[in-house]
Amino acid sequence: MKKKERHQLLRQLVQQEVIQKQEDFVDILQKRGIDITQATISRDIKELQLIKVPAQEGGYQYNLPPEMNYNISKKLARLMKDAFVSIDTQKEFVLIKTLPGNAFALGTLIETAKYQEVFGCISGDDTVLIICRDEDSAERFQRRIISFI
To answer: What is the arithmetic mean of pLDDT over 111-132?
Structure first.
């Protein structure tokens, strides 16, 4: 697994699960078939600037740094201005083309934003396919994205 993909997965994990120790990351990733060491996780935590916050069950858990927890719209707008190439719709599908290397981040931001129109998305290197709930949702979502440009 490439570093960028691993970092994205770690970001998702801290948002979805209670992870209290570096070993928790290692265990979760190994259960998913990803061979990883605690030393690699330690470096990733530093690079991602993960922080520990009080956990509801007691103790502490890893979390994203504060600036990553909010203002998705601002990040989405900045990414769209910097990397947008084109957008098109067909029925309930929206296809966004970006400069190479930017689509994965865009797809992650779209999914993190949890837009009502979006059922899910698939990201590649320079393309994001967004599956909307219906044709009207696809048109609304396209207008939303264009407003960021």
So the answer is: 93
